[in-house]
Amino acid sequence: MKGKIMLSEAYPVDILEDDPEGYQVAAQTYYELLREGAQTSTEVISLSTGEQVRLETSSLCFCTLYRDEPQHKILVLVNPQDTKTVVAVYLKESWWSVEHVLRTSDPTRQGLMKVQSFGERIVLFVLNTIVFGRLERRLDSDDMFFLPHPAKEQAKVLWRDGAAVGFYSIKMKGSLCGDGTGACYLLPVFDTVFVRRKNRCQGLGTAMLRDFCDTFHGDEALGISCPISPAMYKVLRQFLLTCPGERGRLWEVDPPGAWGQRVNIWLKVYLRERTRQDGSTVHPKCSEEDTDTPRQTSQDDGPTHFNQGESHRNGSLENQRGHRMTNNVSKLGYP
Question: Which stretches of sequence are listed as region Disordered (predicted)?
Answer without folding.
Answer: 278-335
